[in-house]
Amino acid sequence: MLKKSMLAAAIALATVSAQAADTTPSMEEMWQLIQTQQAEINALKAQLNQTDSKLQQTEVKVSAAADAIEQGVVGSEALTQVASWVEKTSIGGYGEHHYNHFEDKNDEVDAHRFVLYFGHQFTDSVRFFSEFELEHGIAGEEQVGEVELEQAFIEWDYTQNHSVQLGQFLVPVGILNETHEPDTFYGTERNLVEKEIIPATWWETGVQLKGELAPGLNYNLALHSGLENAEGKIRSGRQKSAKANAEDFAYTARLKYTGIAGLELAATVQYQEDISQGALTEASAWLTEVHAAYTVGPFALRALWAEWDIDGDEIELLGRDSQDGWYLEPSYKFTDSLGVFARYSEYNTTAGFSNSDDTEVWEYGVNYWLTPTVVLKADYTDFVSESSGTDKDALNLGLGWSF
């Protein structure tokens, strides 16, 4: 159809030209004219097609550029969010493996603890911290291990140098209870006085105020859940915030002084309204603890004393109305990597009986730090008192780390 229209137009154009020239073109001239017009039309079509192709290519490029810009903006926002989360979120932890060669019973190898810390900084004044722990390698029905949430609290700096913790936190008492990473203390096992008397590691759920009263002088005031044991057994009375009986609360206060380089002095007092949580007529309990830690050059010394005073006739009959213990630990570092220690401990969980013997323990050994937070340990534990028996005497080897 297009060719016929073009042919008609060419003939008309040729006729007009001939009339103007007063001549009649020959068929050959008309055919040449038609071919010339057809060539010009084909060239114009080719140019139009080329232009249309370039327009289509341009549209594709513009569309791709728009998509790239949009994706780039979305990707930038996502990367910004991830970077912000990474900057405000912290992950850490610690762990330790033990080998105990006992004198009078089977030896043991134990993946004693594997702990992860997770924290997040919501704002400059509001933060979160948690501690999640697996003990003894495996947990479950008829297994020796435990999975425990030891800390999970929100801390809010409500004013300068003063904050409040809400949730599950470590009770502010003793040396090891709040700082118990294996690279921070001597000995493969934690000392028995803080373990049996305090009892470390000990956490509760509640509210705690903390802050600085003066340079180097800090305080803690806490209202929290307490122990539950009608027989006055302190360590087994820990409820670990697991549907804990909260009929009666506990109140803890501590003062700590660190105003002199290398020195820490602290005293803690706790009152629990009823250590039996309603099982006995009366079982109020007082815990008192004082300690000192001093480091000067390569020499360090730790000393701690703690005592429970529990009211109640039933607990008094068991001799557990009074429980106490103390230890003294000197240590010396020959280099930044190598240190030795000795520790003497006495404790008694039935001190209410006048004829009850204290458990006496000597411990001595060596720590070797591969890095400041990775440590190898070797020590010997010697139970001196006859009432303790000799089955606990052991050579202990340990590996510990924190990050």
What oligomeric state best describes the polypeptide chains here? single chain
* C-alpha Rg (nearest Å): 41 Å
Which blocks of ≥5 consecutive residues have pLDDT under 50? Answer: 1-23
Bin the helical content: 10-25%
CATH architecture of the largest domain: Beta Barrel
CATH class descriptor name of the largest domain: Mainly Beta
Placed side by side, the strands forming the largest sheet appear as: 1-2-3-4-5-6-7-8-9-10-11-12-13-14-15-16
* Biggest β-sheet strands, sense, barrel: 16 strands, antiparallel, barrel
State the fourth-level CATH superfamily of the largest domain.
Porin
As for the CATH topology of the largest domain, it is Porin
GO molecular function, one term: porin activity
Organism: Pseudomaricurvus hydrocarbonicus
Keywords: Coiled coil, Signal
Pfam families: Porin_O_P
Please describe the structure with a list of short key phrases separated by commas or semicolons.
Porin; 2 domains; 16-stranded antiparallel beta barrel; about 25% helix
Task: Characterize the structure shown.
The protein has 2 domains: 2-79; 90-402, Porin, CATH 2.40.160. Helices cover 23% and strands 44% of the residues. The chain is built from 4 helices and 16 strands. It has helices at residues 2-21, 27-88, 192-196, 313-317; strands spanning 89-102, 108-121, 126-135, 146-159, 162-170, 203-214, 217-224, 250-257, 263-272, 285-296, 299-310, 322-333, 338-348, 359-371, 374-383, 394-402. Strands 1-2-3-4-5-6-7-8-9-10-11-12-13-14-15-16 form a 16-stranded antiparallel beta barrel. This is Porin. GO terms for molecular function: porin activity. It holds the Pfam family Porin_O_P. InterPro entries: Porin_dom_sf (IPR023614), Porin_O/P (IPR010870).
